[in-house]
Amino acid sequence: MLGRTLLAVTALAATFAVPAALPDADAAVRVRDTVALSNDDNGHTVSVHSGDRIDVHLVAVRTDSEKWSWDVPAASSPEVLHRDEGHTTPDGDAVARFTATGDGTSSITAHRHCRVTRPGHLCSHLVRTWKVTVNVS
């Protein structure tokens, strides 16, 4: 009798046992991450995984007599970072979305140009570059 009871208890315990390691939900389908980049990220390096998204929003700089407007951000290696969308706004901001499509390194760059907002003022011909390096693995 004791043997059958132990056998029944052992079978019952095996039925309710928790596996030592639960399967990783990300192993089958990894949820995409999104990295947001802004003016403050100039000069930084970020690391992402293939399939992740990168959103860039650059804000124009304004003074009483000039506005420094952005052009559309671009990737140096489109085979690593694909630009899904990109545009500028009437107020001089720039917006772009990239998807990491392959392993490697790419930079995202944009340029800021001066626009006169007050008659009689002259802008510098200086062009300022914004750049972020992106490592994809």
TrEMBL record:
<feature type="signal peptide">
    <location>
        <begin position="1"/>
        <end position="20"/>
    </location>
</feature>
<keyword id="KW-0732">Signal</keyword>
<protein>
    <recommendedName>
        <fullName>Proteinase inhibitor I42 chagasin domain-containing protein</fullName>
    </recommendedName>
</protein>
